[in-house]
Design brief:
seven-stranded parallel β-sheet; 9 strands; Leucine-rich repeat, LRR (right-handed beta-alpha superhelix); mainly alpha
């Protein structure tokens, strides 16, 4: 900080400062007018606050449409209070005392950023600036050349200024930077061709890693999108062995019983049949989802057609009224006698009353028509939901039947194995925790039953989730349709009343001149 700055009191941006700055940047021919009448800060797109000894950024939230901001040559220590400037494209914070890059998260449209001549030691906290094209951070305290790799995430970056940082003294500086940022057009005004070849062995693995990361991201996004689709159909994770695996995930007894002779084959067959049933439920669920969506779509299409026809009829009634009466107010005001004016005024009042009755009658007919449409929709949704629920219950019963059959066979194998163990006829070498189940019949039967109960609970829980989601959907979609109609009717009645009141007020404001012969 030079002596000039030390001799001036540090400033914080306030209304007086920004008002003055806005006035100064206006053309001279309108500056006096702006000073006298003021200007809405929301309309300002560019603001220059250079050389004002500003210590702290503040009070810029009013500049909602600002695209260009100059805060260079001040004594600013922290980047802050810029959150609302979401339309900013150009930001100059050069020649300040900033130590940390921060406070830029919301400036997602930023294309040109200058932090030249500050005290920054790390390039960081810029991830959201994906539109960045020009970045100047020369004459700072950057010491680690590898930190430049952070800038690879900015795919639009074409111009970069790093000159004057400590790491620029590295003889490999230029080659390293442009090799790792191959899309740069300018780096301290030097080209990149030689550097690309020099660092090719280092940059190619980075490019492969980034390509792989991008492919994985796209794959995960696709999977997430598909999962969300399955959730809306209420059959997520049923297109495979997830439910079956979840039945055994917390079942410690099943893990022990799996070592009994013959259980492995039994379990494999059970798994295959169970997964097949789950997949049939999954496919049925997707088909039913499409059916539900089609029913909702058909309803709103019919609703739109009815409303459009009603609106056209309403506009026709209003146009007929306005055609009849477009000269009436002038005739009342310019009537040749008071009696004639008063008579025409009475006729106009009556016509307004008839218009009101016609529009309200039309709205009542619309309400009745939509009420029938809504009742049909409610019945259809209830029927679709009921059919789906019944079929889900039937398919989940198949899952329970498979579990019950498996339980019976497992129980039979367990008792047989126990009997062999008691007679010392068991040839298999079983783990200790499995042998502990073969102490007596009660122990082995309890283990099998405990495992069975866990499996049934998992099946029951999955069924309950599907049914609950279906009931919630049914209630939500019908309640939304009814509430929309209530709101529409309320708004339409208000609209009619307001229109009629305006006509009446316009008529009341017409002066009837009392003419004398």
């Amino acid at each position: 900080m030079n002596q000039f700055y030390n001799s001036i009191e540090p400033n914080v941006i306030d209304d007086k400062m920004v008002q003055k700055a806005v006035e100064e940047q206006c053309p001279e021919d309108i500056r006096k007018l702006v000073k006298r009448e003021g200007i809405d800060f929301k309309d300002v797109t560019e603001l220059q606050l250079s050389f004002r000894n500003i210590l702290q950024i503040d009070n810029l939230w009013q500049f909602e449409t600002l695209t260009k901001l100059q805060l260079d040559n001040n004594i600013i220590e922290k980047i802050e209070a810029l959150e609302s400037l979401v339309h900013l494209v150009w930001l100059d914070l050069s020649f300040n005392n900033i130590e940390v890059i921060e406070g830029l998260d919301t400036l997602v449209k930023l294309q040109d950023l200058s932090l030249y001549n500050n005290r920054i030691s790390i390039i960081e906290h810029m991830d959201t600036l994906q539109e960045l094209q020009i970045f100047s951070i020369g004459k700072n305290n950057l010491t680690i050349l590898e930190d430049v790799i952070y800038l690879r995430r900015f795919k639009n970056l074409r111009t970069l200024n790093l000159a004057g940082n400590p790491f620029c003294n590295d003889e490999q500086y230029t080659l390293f930077v442009v090799a790792h940022l191959p899309d740069l057009v300018y780096l301290d005004f030097k080209l990149r061709e030689v550097a690309v070849l020099t660092y090719q062995d280092h940059t190619e693995p980075l490019e492969r890693e980034e390509a792989q990361a991008l492919a994985e991201l796209e794959e995960n996004q696709a999977k997430q999108k598909e999962l969300e689709y399955h959730k809306t159909a209420f059959v997520e994770y049923l297109n495979g062995s997830f439910l079956f695996d979840s039945m055994y995930a917390d079942d410690t007894e099943a893990a022990k019983l799996a070592y009994l002779p013959g259980v492995g084959d039994l379990l494999q067959a059970y798994r295959k049949e169970f997964v097949s049933v789950c997949e049939s439920l999954f496919n049925y669920g997707l088909k039913e989802y499409e059916k539900r969506e089609a029913e909702v779509s058909d309803f709103y299409e019919s609703l739109h057609e009815a409303l459009t026809a009603n609106q056209q009829e309403g506009r026709k009634i209003i146009l007929d009224f306005e055609d009849r009466n477009k000269r009436t107010l002038d005739e009342i005001q310019n009537a040749s006698s008071y009696d004639i004016a008063e008579s025409k005024q009475a006729e106009y009042k009556e016509d307004i009353l008839q218009l009101s009755e016609a529009l309200m009658t039309l709205e009542m007919l619309m309400t009745d028509q939509l009420e029938e449409l809504l009742k049909d929709f409610e019945r259809n949704i209830a029927a679709i939901a009921s059919t789906f629920i019944e079929n889900v219950k039937e398919i989940m019963t198949q899952c329970r039947d498979l579990e019950n059959r498996h339980h019976g066979k497992l129980l039979e194998i367990s008792v047989t194995t126990l009997e062999k163990s008691v007679k010392n006829e068991l040839d298999e070498d079983l783990p200790d925790d499995t042998r502990m189940l073969l102490v007596n019949k009660t122990t082995i039967v309890n283990a099998v039953n405990t495992s069975h109960d866990i499996h049934l609970q998992k099946i029951d829980k999955r069924e309950s989730d599907i049914l609950s989601n279906t009931h919630r959907w049914q209630a939500s979609v019908t309640e939304k349709a009814f509430q929309n109609e209530i709101n529409r009717n309320r708004d339409r009645v208000k609209e009619i009343v307001q229109y009629i009141d305006n006509l009446q007020e316009e008529l009341d404001n017409v002066e009837i001149l009392e003419l004398t012969e």
